[in-house]
Amino acid sequence: MMTATEFRSLFQNGLNKQNAGLVQLLGLCPLLAISNTLVNALALGLATMLVMVFSSGAVSGVRNFVPHEIRIPVFVLIIAALVTVIDLAMHAYVHRLYLVLGIFIPLITTNCIVLARADAFASKNHPLHSMVDAFAMGLGLTLVLVVLGGFRELAGQGTLLSGINLVFGEEAKQFVLHVLPNYQGFLLAILPPGAFISLGLLIAAHNWNKARAEQRAHAAIPSPA
Amino acid sequence: MPAPFILDRSSVTQVMAWVLAALLPGVAVYVWVFGPGILVTLSLATVTALAAEAAMLKARGYPVKPFLTDLSAIVTAWLLALSLPSLAPWWLIITGTVFAIVVAKHLYGGLGQNIFNPAMVGYAVLIVSFPVQMTQWSGPIELTPSSLSFAQSAAVIFGGDFPKAALDAVTMATPLDTLRTGLLQQLTIDEIMPKSIFGQYGGTGFEWLAAAFLVGGLLLWALRIIGWQVPLAFLAGIWLTAGFLHFFDAGRFGAPWFHLFAPSVMLGAFFIATDPVSGATTPRGKLIFGFGAGFLTIIIRTWGGYPDGVAFAILLMNLSVPLIDAWTQPRIYGGSKRNGKDPSA
User: Fold this and answer.
1) In this predicted complex, what is the ipTM?
2) B2 lies in some domain
């Protein structure tokens, strides 16, 4: 059904080569807006990933029945229905986190990366492949969100996992890591410019890493004498 | 010897050396009016800027020595240090300087490539991130109960044990802070202005500082290192905007003289807005750039969230430079009136 090579290449694309946040630069609106703390970033990343996996599976399932001309409205309806499910579920079970994330949960519907995977991959591939692809892409986005959220929270207020009590209740407050005690706080990192600067640095690091890998691959090929 | 036979003052090092020399009257008056704390700030910013510059040059694979000795990093450090509160803690100075050199200068491509003035980026980062520490100004010596020696200033800046009461005795709100607080308390300009901090024009001591920067700026203009367009248009922007508001409601808007001689305007007009890299390049563009910066300064001072607006105004105008330059391309002699367009079209 699915070979190991296919499986690996889907994950390589999602996590590295075609990473939604660092390479395709899709879905930047929630990425920049919600990456101010680790918990927020992780929550939105997981919600987006869940929507992506199920929407890709559903889109792939109906791909042979949807006329080409009206595929986008159909895909958007499927995605919107799934986002509504996530939205209501979060409203019910993690209500305080839901209040913090606010409009950005319904906005997953308009996240480019969700529709991009539905249209570019799921509408042309088998449901299993599509779901694995969506999972890999969603994981790549979540990882970027987590790194960005962790970095901004650490630089901005010197803690990690603050706000975890919004998910697990008041007793979870002890899990908040005060990495830098007596930290003055660096407001810029939490404010919107901090999101742009941090993402820029992250993309630069990714490109630098890529360039070095290419250089090494180049050096490994012996030059003809 | 080929023409032109005009003394060339255009090498980067020479220009930067003159800018530093032109800042010296300002530094001298600063020490005289506010005490020697600024010397600690200047030295710390200079050392940090040189270290950050050397590290970035090395990381980017440039030869370190020729670029490090072109003095441009020191100019950035001095402009930032002169904008900071004179008793700012050491980590504030280092953070601002490192941000200015590493992010605003080198990540944008180094000297000649930065779209924003590095010193102003450093200042904006600090005022946005650390509003409390950015208000620790030592007051003019003639108004404060006591003043600090060089060693005491260093002790405050490096966070040694310094009694809070002694610190309170030497710090004061700046004129612009006082104005802002007064207006927020529904006082009128006439009720605020008699306070001793305001002096004759721009604030006791501050007006002397402004005059010293004006002298230094005129020196740079006399040497043709800066043109007249940006400073004149900047001051005109301040004067006309503040004058217009003051004319309509003198009770709510400060006098144009006050805004001209209040802290930071002269420094901004002659030393920061005239940055040849991040400023407009065409003659008409320079006028628009300067006027816009002056106009925005008054708008931000009056309705913004921070007491002073020079840094934000200059950064906003830096952002508009590509547009201004594109609009104001001078007509080439003999060319069509419409820029770059075929007259027959």
Assistant:
1) 0.75
2) no
